[in-house]
Protein backbone atom coordinates (compact mmCIF):
# COMPACT_ATOMS: atom_id res chain seq x y z
CA UNK A 1 0.00 0.00 0.00
CA UNK A 2 1.29 3.42 -0.86
CA UNK A 3 0.24 6.69 0.67
CA UNK A 4 -3.25 8.16 0.85
CA UNK A 5 -3.66 11.87 1.46
CA UNK A 6 -6.89 13.71 2.18
CA UNK A 7 -7.29 17.32 3.16
CA UNK A 8 -9.95 19.03 5.21
CA UNK A 9 -10.41 22.51 6.57
CA UNK A 10 -10.85 23.23 10.28
CA UNK A 11 -11.35 26.96 10.61
CA UNK A 12 -8.38 28.53 8.92
CA UNK A 13 -6.20 25.44 9.41
CA UNK A 14 -5.73 22.94 6.60
CA UNK A 15 -5.48 19.44 7.98
CA UNK A 16 -3.84 16.77 5.84
CA UNK A 17 -4.66 13.24 6.94
CA UNK A 18 -1.86 10.98 5.80
CA UNK A 19 -2.23 7.20 5.71
CA UNK A 20 0.11 4.49 4.48
CA UNK A 21 3.74 4.65 3.52
CA UNK A 22 5.86 7.76 3.02
CA UNK A 23 8.80 6.22 1.22
CA UNK A 24 10.91 7.03 -1.81
CA UNK A 25 8.74 7.09 -4.91
CA UNK A 26 5.00 7.54 -4.98
CA UNK A 27 4.57 8.12 -1.25
CA UNK A 28 7.03 10.94 -0.80
CA UNK A 29 6.22 12.61 -4.13
CA UNK A 30 2.49 12.61 -3.33
CA UNK A 31 3.17 14.37 -0.05
CA UNK A 32 5.46 16.88 -1.75
CA UNK A 33 2.89 17.70 -4.42
CA UNK A 34 0.10 18.09 -1.89
CA UNK A 35 2.11 20.49 0.25
CA UNK A 36 3.34 22.51 -2.73
CA UNK A 37 -0.22 22.76 -4.00
CA UNK A 38 -1.40 24.05 -0.62
CA UNK A 39 1.40 26.62 -0.45
CA UNK A 40 0.53 27.62 -4.01
CA UNK A 41 -3.02 28.27 -2.82
CA UNK A 42 -1.60 30.51 -0.10
CA UNK A 43 -2.60 28.21 2.75
CA UNK A 44 -0.48 29.30 5.70
CA UNK A 45 -1.57 26.97 8.48
CA UNK A 46 -1.04 23.32 7.70
CA UNK A 47 -1.41 20.43 10.12
CA UNK A 48 -0.08 17.04 8.99
CA UNK A 49 -1.93 14.23 10.73
CA UNK A 50 0.46 11.27 10.57
CA UNK A 51 -1.60 8.98 12.81
CA UNK A 52 -2.19 6.41 10.08
CA UNK A 53 1.33 6.43 8.65
CA UNK A 54 2.57 2.85 8.78
CA UNK A 55 6.06 3.39 7.45
CA UNK A 56 8.45 6.24 6.76
CA UNK A 57 12.01 6.10 5.42
CA UNK A 58 14.76 8.72 5.10
CA UNK A 59 13.15 10.00 1.91
CA UNK A 60 9.87 10.48 3.75
CA UNK A 61 11.66 12.27 6.57
CA UNK A 62 13.26 14.46 3.92
CA UNK A 63 9.82 15.30 2.55
CA UNK A 64 8.62 16.34 6.00
CA UNK A 65 11.63 18.62 6.30
CA UNK A 66 11.11 19.95 2.78
CA UNK A 67 7.45 20.65 3.54
CA UNK A 68 8.36 22.35 6.78
CA UNK A 69 10.84 24.72 5.10
CA UNK A 70 8.63 25.31 2.05
CA UNK A 71 5.70 26.35 4.22
CA UNK A 72 7.90 28.41 6.52
CA UNK A 73 9.52 30.19 3.58
CA UNK A 74 6.08 31.18 2.37
CA UNK A 75 5.34 32.74 5.74
CA UNK A 76 3.25 29.83 7.01
CA UNK A 77 3.46 27.13 9.65
CA UNK A 78 3.51 23.36 9.25
CA UNK A 79 2.86 21.26 12.34
CA UNK A 80 2.67 17.53 12.98
CA UNK A 81 -0.13 15.60 14.68
CA UNK A 82 -0.48 12.05 16.05
CA UNK A 83 2.97 10.59 15.54
CA UNK A 84 3.05 6.86 16.10
CA UNK A 85 6.01 5.30 17.88
CA UNK A 86 7.81 4.47 14.67
CA UNK A 87 7.66 7.99 13.26
CA UNK A 88 8.36 9.56 16.63
CA UNK A 89 11.43 7.37 17.15
CA UNK A 90 12.79 8.30 13.73
CA UNK A 91 12.28 12.01 14.32
CA UNK A 92 13.97 11.73 17.71
CA UNK A 93 16.97 9.80 16.46
CA UNK A 94 17.45 12.33 13.64
CA UNK A 95 17.05 15.22 16.11
CA UNK A 96 14.09 16.55 14.14
CA UNK A 97 11.53 16.00 16.88
CA UNK A 98 12.34 19.38 18.40
CA UNK A 99 12.46 21.09 15.01
CA UNK A 100 8.82 20.31 14.35
CA UNK A 101 5.93 21.50 16.47
CA UNK A 102 4.41 18.12 17.37
CA UNK A 103 0.96 17.61 18.87
CA UNK A 104 -1.05 14.64 20.14
CA UNK A 105 -4.40 16.41 20.27
CA UNK A 106 -6.01 17.86 17.18
CA UNK A 107 -8.02 20.55 18.94
CA UNK A 108 -4.90 21.73 20.78
CA UNK A 109 -2.91 21.66 17.59
CA UNK A 110 -5.53 23.78 15.81
CA UNK A 111 -5.50 26.31 18.65
CA UNK A 112 -1.70 26.50 18.61
CA UNK A 113 -1.57 28.17 15.20
CA UNK A 114 -1.01 31.90 15.43
CA UNK B 1 6.67 -12.25 -5.56
CA UNK B 2 7.25 -15.85 -6.52
CA UNK B 3 10.82 -16.33 -5.37
CA UNK B 4 10.66 -15.81 -1.63
CA UNK B 5 12.93 -18.16 0.26
CA UNK B 6 11.55 -21.47 1.44
CA UNK B 7 10.70 -22.03 5.10
CA UNK B 8 13.58 -23.72 6.86
CA UNK B 9 16.32 -22.15 4.80
CA UNK B 10 18.62 -19.71 6.54
CA UNK B 11 19.90 -17.75 3.59
CA UNK B 12 18.64 -16.10 0.44
CA UNK B 13 20.38 -14.60 -2.57
CA UNK B 14 18.95 -12.69 -5.48
CA UNK B 15 20.10 -10.71 -8.48
CA UNK B 16 17.68 -7.79 -8.62
CA UNK B 17 16.74 -5.17 -11.18
CA UNK B 18 17.63 -1.56 -10.48
CA UNK B 19 14.08 -0.57 -9.60
CA UNK B 20 12.15 0.62 -6.57
CA UNK B 21 10.19 -2.65 -6.73
CA UNK B 22 13.47 -4.40 -5.97
CA UNK B 23 13.82 -2.22 -2.87
CA UNK B 24 10.49 -3.50 -1.57
CA UNK B 25 11.35 -7.06 -2.54
CA UNK B 26 14.72 -7.03 -0.79
CA UNK B 27 13.17 -5.59 2.34
CA UNK B 28 10.50 -8.30 2.33
CA UNK B 29 13.12 -11.02 1.86
CA UNK B 30 15.34 -9.71 4.66
CA UNK B 31 12.50 -9.15 7.11
CA UNK B 32 11.02 -12.57 6.29
CA UNK B 33 14.32 -14.29 7.02
CA UNK B 34 14.88 -12.25 10.18
CA UNK B 35 11.36 -13.01 11.38
CA UNK B 36 11.92 -16.74 10.95
CA UNK B 37 15.20 -16.34 12.84
CA UNK B 38 13.28 -14.97 15.83
CA UNK B 39 13.97 -11.24 15.81
CA UNK B 40 11.30 -9.20 17.59
CA UNK B 41 9.14 -6.56 15.91
CA UNK B 42 11.38 -3.70 16.99
CA UNK B 43 14.44 -5.33 15.42
CA UNK B 44 12.46 -6.31 12.32
CA UNK B 45 11.57 -2.66 11.83
CA UNK B 46 15.21 -1.67 12.18
CA UNK B 47 16.44 -4.39 9.82
CA UNK B 48 13.76 -3.57 7.28
CA UNK B 49 14.53 0.12 7.23
CA UNK B 50 18.29 -0.45 7.09
CA UNK B 51 17.89 -2.82 4.14
CA UNK B 52 15.52 -0.37 2.43
CA UNK B 53 17.98 2.50 2.81
CA UNK B 54 20.85 0.35 1.53
CA UNK B 55 18.83 -0.84 -1.44
CA UNK B 56 17.80 2.72 -2.29
CA UNK B 57 21.46 3.71 -2.26
CA UNK B 58 22.31 0.81 -4.59
CA UNK B 59 19.41 1.36 -7.01
CA UNK B 60 19.25 5.15 -7.04
CA UNK B 61 22.75 6.42 -6.25
CA UNK B 62 24.80 3.40 -7.34
CA UNK B 63 23.13 1.98 -10.42
CA UNK B 64 21.08 5.11 -11.11
CA UNK B 65 18.09 3.00 -12.19
CA UNK B 66 20.21 1.64 -15.08
CA UNK B 67 18.32 -1.34 -16.50
CA UNK B 68 21.62 -2.94 -17.55
CA UNK B 69 22.94 -2.98 -13.99
CA UNK B 70 21.94 -5.40 -11.26
CA UNK B 71 21.88 -5.30 -7.51
CA UNK B 72 23.14 -8.44 -5.78
CA UNK B 73 21.31 -9.11 -2.55
CA UNK B 74 22.19 -11.77 -0.02
CA UNK B 75 20.89 -12.33 3.51
CA UNK B 76 21.83 -15.09 5.91
CA UNK B 77 21.42 -16.15 9.50
CA UNK B 78 24.44 -17.87 11.02
CA UNK B 79 24.14 -18.59 14.71
CA UNK B 80 23.10 -15.30 16.26
CA UNK B 81 24.48 -13.25 13.38
CA UNK B 82 22.11 -11.92 10.73
CA UNK B 83 24.00 -10.56 7.74
CA UNK B 84 22.80 -8.72 4.66
CA UNK B 85 25.07 -7.92 1.72
CA UNK B 86 24.00 -5.56 -1.04
CA UNK B 87 26.22 -4.83 -4.02
CA UNK B 88 25.64 -2.43 -6.88
CA UNK B 89 27.51 -1.83 -10.14
CA UNK B 90 27.84 1.92 -9.75
CA UNK B 91 30.77 4.27 -9.82
CA UNK B 92 31.34 4.08 -6.09
CA UNK B 93 30.46 6.18 -3.13
CA UNK B 94 32.62 7.73 -0.43
CA UNK B 95 31.04 6.42 2.74
CA UNK B 96 33.89 7.73 4.85
CA UNK B 97 33.21 11.41 4.28
CA UNK B 98 29.52 12.03 4.78
CA UNK B 99 28.10 15.18 6.34
CA UNK B 100 26.80 14.65 9.87
CA UNK B 101 22.99 14.81 9.55
CA UNK B 102 22.74 15.74 13.24
CA UNK B 103 24.91 18.84 12.90
CA UNK B 104 22.79 21.96 13.39
CA UNK B 105 23.66 23.26 9.93
CA UNK B 106 22.47 19.98 8.36
CA UNK B 107 19.28 19.37 10.34
CA UNK B 108 17.05 20.92 7.69
CA UNK B 109 18.67 19.17 4.76
CA UNK B 110 16.17 17.10 2.83
CA UNK B 111 18.56 14.18 2.30
CA UNK B 112 21.63 12.58 3.81
CA UNK B 113 20.07 10.55 6.65
CA UNK B 114 20.07 7.07 5.08
CA UNK B 115 23.52 5.91 6.13
CA UNK B 116 23.06 7.44 9.56
CA UNK B 117 19.86 5.42 10.07
CA UNK B 118 21.55 2.22 8.86
CA UNK B 119 24.43 2.72 11.29
CA UNK B 120 21.99 3.53 14.09
CA UNK B 121 19.81 0.48 13.53
CA UNK B 122 22.36 -2.23 12.79
CA UNK B 123 25.14 -3.61 15.00
CA UNK B 124 27.71 -3.29 12.24
CA UNK B 125 27.89 -1.58 8.86
CA UNK B 126 30.74 -1.84 6.39
CA UNK B 127 31.14 -0.60 2.83
CA UNK B 128 33.82 -1.53 0.33
CA UNK B 129 34.61 -0.73 -3.28
CA UNK B 130 34.36 -3.59 -5.72
CA UNK B 131 36.66 -4.14 -8.71
CA UNK B 132 36.22 -3.11 -11.44
CA UNK B 133 33.09 -1.21 -10.42
CA UNK B 134 30.54 -1.15 -7.69
CA UNK B 135 30.07 -0.90 -3.98
CA UNK B 136 29.15 -3.62 -1.52
CA UNK B 137 27.67 -2.86 1.86
CA UNK B 138 27.42 -5.39 4.68
CA UNK B 139 24.85 -4.99 7.42
CA UNK B 140 24.96 -7.10 10.57
CA UNK B 141 22.43 -7.52 13.34
CA UNK B 142 22.88 -9.89 16.25
CA UNK B 143 19.89 -11.80 17.57
CA UNK B 144 20.90 -10.73 21.04
CA UNK B 145 22.16 -7.20 20.65
CA UNK B 146 25.73 -6.61 21.76
Report on the structure:
The complex is a heterodimer of chains A (114) and B (146). Chain A is built from 4 helices and 5 strands. Chain A has 114 residues and is an alpha/beta fold. Chain A has one domain: STAS domain (Transcription Regulator spoIIAA, 2-Layer Sandwich), CATH 3.30.750.24. In chain A, strands 1-2-3-4-5 form a 5-stranded mixed beta sheet, sandwiched between helices. In chain A, α2 links the parallel β3 and β4. Chain A is globular. Chain B contains 3 helices and 5 strands, in the order βααββαββ. In chain B, α2 packs antiparallel against α3. Chain B has one domain: Histidine kinase-like ATPase, C-terminal domain (Heat Shock Protein 90), CATH 3.30.565.10. With 146 residues, chain B is α+β, with helices and mostly antiparallel strands. Helices cover 32% and strands 25% of the residues of chain B. The N terminus of chain B is likely disordered. The chains are: A alpha/beta (114), B alpha+beta (146).
Amino acid sequence: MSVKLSTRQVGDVSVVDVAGRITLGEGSSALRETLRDMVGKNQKKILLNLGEVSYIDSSGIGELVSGFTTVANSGGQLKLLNLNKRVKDLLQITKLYTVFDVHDDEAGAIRSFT
Amino acid sequence: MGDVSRPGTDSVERSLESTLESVDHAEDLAVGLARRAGFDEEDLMKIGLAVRESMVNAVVHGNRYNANKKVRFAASMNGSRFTVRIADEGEGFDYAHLPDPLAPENLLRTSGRGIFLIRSFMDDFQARRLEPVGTEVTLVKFAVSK
